[in-house]
Design brief:
- There is one protein chain.
- The protein is an alpha/beta fold.
- It folds into 2 domains: 4-232, Spore Coat Polysaccharide Biosynthesis Protein SpsA, Chain A (Alpha-Beta Complex), CATH 3.90.550.10; 237-364.
- The protein has helices at residues 17-30, 48-58, 73-83, 103-111, 133-149, 165-168, 180-187, 212-231, 236-267, 273-296, 308-337, 341-364, and strands spanning 4-10, 35-41, 62-66, 88-91, 116-120, 127-129, 161-164, 193-197, 199-201.
- It has a 7-stranded mixed beta sheet with strand order 3-2-1-4-7-5-8, with helices on both faces. Strands 6-9 form a two-stranded parallel sheet.
- The radius of gyration is 25 Å and the shape is elongated.
- The structure holds guanosine-5'-diphosphate-alpha-D-mannose and manganese (II) ion.
- Guanosine-5'-diphosphate-alpha-D-mannose is lined by residues 9-11, 13, 40-42, 71-73, 76, 93-95, 97, 139, 157, 159, 178-179, 203, 208-210.
């Protein structure tokens, strides 16, 4: 039994495979780790397989799994999970886009109690070197979608991560496409995660195999994980649906507060109704803030904006932004597209709701 298994998925990587295996093995030795290297190859037609077979002779901790069915990066990694001879897995690309020197740190964090440790390109200290604009745009879109499900993870589609065997062994993974990490986060059983920044360096040798099909598969995967979370309430994505639901309830009750206060102020306090409306709006914003702070987001020590007053100001500003969106859409749809005014307002409300939820989650109640 090894301390950890470094899984390297490969498809036609003869230019890199020898060097990456040796680099990982050197990291093992420098850090006194009893590590296994498991290359999971999709029956490459180039010299990848002979190169690993050759290395195996001098390095007993190096192994190769050659697959002949169900070709695919994610499928290969999932197969690696099943064949690894340890309880900690690290997944790394063969093309030196991910620095092997970070492997011991990832392993340390797992030993300290993390279930998943992610190499992140999108947190402070991380980055991407030499990427064409097209790839940056695709990656930004993929990351945005992934963060809808896992808002606290900055890089949910990273190809460089460590995971405990227990997270994935019973998970009904449906591996496909390139984003195996998203599948692990969506279906695995985990609680504690940690991200480590790294700089992604684009490959020098060989070509990337990312295709349009990969993007479509990814969109399907996001939908599948969302649906999965509806029936598996222990999943991390379900926590997010609960928040959306609570945020909605608070919003609806805020409307009642708004109308009630307005009515009281006009009928009993005999206030000018224009002034009364403003007061009612602000009181409903306060009402929504308090409930979201205590209930929806349960803001505790781990929120970045530690002062409740500052969170209140942020929430207020976001709410004003939401109202502007609501009104702007109303004007656009009624005047520009002659949409029935009530329908236009309803669309405005829904878009503003999405805005309010996402921005508040990302700003007002974002975690450290
Ligand atoms: N077994 C197997 N089967 N391996 C594959 C396959 C496949 O069909 N396709 C690619 N690989 C291997 C490559 O040989 C390489 O080791 C690794 O998977 C990454 O492949 P690249 O083609 O270089 O991926 P990329 O650089 O476009 O994408 C990387 O960055 C993404 C983040 O933007 C990967 O790390 C992705 O997993 C990651 O999501
Ligand atoms: Mn690559």
């Amino acid at each position: 039994m090894y301390d950890l298994t470094v899984i390297i998925p490969t498809f036609n990587e003869e230019a890199n495979i020898r060097n990456i295996v040796l680099a990982v093995d050197a990291v093992f030795r420098e850090n006194s780790l009893n590590g296994q290297v498991l290359v999971v190859d999709d029956n490459s037609s180039d010299g990848t397989i002979p190169a690993v077979t050759d290395l195996k002779r001098t390095h007993p901790n190096v192994d190769i799994l050659v697959r002949t069915e169900d070709h695919g990066l994610s499928q290969s990694v999932a197969d690696g999970f099943r064949h690894a001879a340890s309880n900690v897995f690290v997944v790394i690309d063969a093309d030196f886009s991910h620095p092997p020197v970070l492997i011991p740190r990832m392993y340390e964090e797992i030993k300290k109690g993390c279930d998943v440790v992610i190499g992140s390109r999108y947190m402070e200290g991380g980055g991407i070197k030499d990427w064409p604009l097209k790839r940056r745009i695709i990656s930004t879109g993929a990351t945005f979608l992934g963060r809808l499900l896992f808002p606290d993870v900055t890089d949910p589609v990273s190809g460089f991560f460590a995971v405990k065997k227990s997270v994935v062994e019973d998970a009904p993974l449906k591996p496909r496409g390139y984003k195996i990490l998203l599948e692990v986060l969506g279906k695995g059983s985990w609680e504690k995660d940690k991200e480590i920044p790294f700089e992604f360096i684009d490959r020098e040798a060989g070509a990337s195999k990312l295709r349009l099909k990969t993007i479509i598969e990814y969109a399907e995967q996001v939908v599948d994980i969302s649906l999965y979370s509806f029936t598996h309430h222990e999943s991390a994505a379900w926590r997010e649906w609960k928040r959306v639901f609570k945020f909605g309830i608070v919003g609806l009750s805020g409307i009642i507060v708004n109308l009630g206060i307005l009515w009281l102020l006009v009928e009993y306090a005999l206030l000018d109704k224009n002034i009364a409306s403003l007061i009612a709006i602000e009181i409903s914003i306060l009402h929504n803030f308090v409930w979201n702070d205590l209930w929806t987001f349960r803001a505790k020590e781990d929120v970045r904006i530690t002062s409740r007053w500052q969170r209140l100001i942020a929430f207020n500003l976001v709410s004003i932004g939401g109202s502007v969106i609501n009104w702007g859409l109303f004007l656009l749809l009624t005047a520009g597209f002659s949409v029935y005014y009530l329908l236009a307002q309803l669309i405005g409300i829904l878009v503003a709701f999405v805005w309010n939820f996402l921005v508040n989650r990302r700003v007002t109640w974002t975690r450290k």
